Amino acid sequence: MAVELSSILHGGFAHPLSRKWQAERQLTKEMLMYPLFITDCPDEETLVSSLPGQYRRGINKLVPFLTSLVERGLKSVILFGVPLAPTAKDPVGSQSCAPHGPVIQGIQTLKSAFPGLFIACDVCLCEYTSHGHCGVIRPDGRLDNALSVQRIKETAIGYAIAGADCVAPSDMNDGRIRAIKEGLREVGLENKVLLMSYAAKFAGNLYGPFRDAAGSAPSFGDRKCYQLPPSGKGLARRAILRDLNEGADVIMVKPASAYLDVIADAKELARNVPIAAYQVSGEYAMIHAAAKAGVFDLKAMAMETFEGILRAGATIVISYFTEQVLLEGWLDN
Ligand SMILES: NCc1[nH]cc(CCC(=O)O)c1CC(=O)O
Ligand SMILES: [Zn+2]
Ligand SMILES: [Zn+2]
After folding, report:
1. Do 145 and 173 contact (CB within 8 A), yes or no?
2. Which ligand 1 atom lies nearest to the CA of residue 35?
3. 71-95: pLDDT as tens digits
4. Is residue 57 within 8 Å of residue 102, measured between CB atoms?
5. Taking burial as the number of CB atoms within 10 A of a residue's CB, which of 99, 136, 144, 248 is the most buried?
6. 160 — phi, psi (to 5°)?
7. How many domains does the structure of the chain reveal?
8. Mean pLDDT over residues 156-171, rounded?
9. Quick check: pTM over 0.90?
10. What ipTM does the predicted assembly reach?
């Protein structure tokens, strides 16, 4: 039986190099952003047991830890504040941008040690509120959108003034992108600070290890009324368009692997801005657990997830694997 010549595919990817050519984009060090948990105990360095190999660190441990990573090509980090002092939490999260708080201290410390490192800051209140929700709560238990946006704006502007290169609100309150962009303009930083929106952030089961690391689990209820429902493809498209319209400079999709269609939607809807994907704590922990159980090789699987994320359209990847990628030279070949 004669085979149609156009049916023959294997010749196109027989060599390792011709396999690489199949990628529209290759992962580079510039694409990787590494999450850092910074506590208010200066000398702390505590392993987060549900997030294999990842630590919460105090301000004095940051530079020693990051030096070798920066030498190996770390280009950007995203900071999460983890206040441990009981006095650091209240109903409105008023310590979120305290000058002596972990994020502002972290920005200043990292900027002076590594002037070229791009510093993004997650902007949210859940680490600072006594109830663990991402905004200010009304008496009836719902988020007070206006008050929450006011506090999120204040927090973002505090980080921007302290020297952050990027503010990234993850709170999901309606209208926060416009408020932050306006706030940046009010303080004259709109042409210096990048605004990355957690635009399509889904409620789900993959944030547990992060909440252990950040101590930010809600004390009642869940986040389903402000983070998107996993099946909400249309809602994600509306959120992406809205945040773009309000002035987002980067659109993020989170989590990554179960939401590759949403990344592809973001790429299509937001063609004029870079798309970021957050491979979240639960994704990282799952890959570790399965590798440990012998299901697959850790590096091979992690790299396959990156290929999928890039194929879908993201060019910024926030991942806890960044450390290992750099230290073990996963991109060198
Ligand atoms: N709003 C806080 C925030 N910012 C980033 C993450 C998740 C990151 C991860 O799981 O790695 C979360 C957790 C949440 O929304 O509960
Ligand atoms: Zn957050
Ligand atoms: Zn939050």
Report:
1. yes
2. 11
3. 999 999 999 999 998 899 999 999 9
4. no
5. 248
6. -65, -45
7. 1
8. 98
9. yes
10. 0.94
For ligand 2, the distance from its centroid to the CA atom of residue 113, given in whole angstroms, is 25
100 phi and psi, to 5 degrees?
-95, 5
Length of the chain: 333
Q: Which residues pair with 93 in a beta bridge?
A: none
Q: Which domain holds residue 143?
A: 27-246
Instruction: Let me know if 254 is a catalytic residue.
Output: yes
Paired strand residues for 90: 129
Distance from C-alpha of 97 to C-alpha of 99, rounded to nearest angstrom:
6
Give the residue carrying structure tokens 């663990």: 132
Identify whether 201 is a catalytic site residue.
Answer: yes
313 in Cβ contact with 262 (< 8 Å): no
**Which protein residues touch ligand 1 with a CB less than 6 Å away?**
122, 124, 126, 134, 170, 207, 210-211, 216, 223, 280-281
Query: Which residues share a beta bridge with 36?
Result: 79
Please choose, from the candidates 81, 76, 109, 85, the residue with its C-alpha nearest in 3D space to the C-alpha of residue 96. Answer: 81
Q: Of 152-166, 214-228, 236-250, where does mean pLDDT reach its minimum?
A: 214-228
Distance of CA 91 from the midpoint of ligand 1 (Å): 19
Distance 134 CA to ligand 1 centre (A): 10
Residues with CB under 5 A from ligand 2 (ion): 122, 124, 170
Q: Among candidates 322, 290, 285, which has minimal Cα distance to 330?
A: 322
**Phi, psi dihedrals of residue 244, rounded to the nearest 5°:** -60, -45
Q: Is 318 part of a structural domain of the chain?
A: no
- Domain assignment present for 294: no
Look at residue 254 and tell me if it is in a domain: no
- Whether 230 has a pLDDT exceeding 70, the answer reads yes
Q: How far from chain centre, in Å, is Cα 116?
A: 20
* Residues contributing to the annotated binding site for 5-aminolevulinate: 211, 223, 281, 320
d(CA 147, CA 132): 16
Backbone angles phi, psi at 189, to 5 degrees: -115, 10
Is the predicted pLDDT of residue 43 greater than 70, yes or no?
Answer: yes
CATH number of the domain within which 83 lies? 3.20.20.70
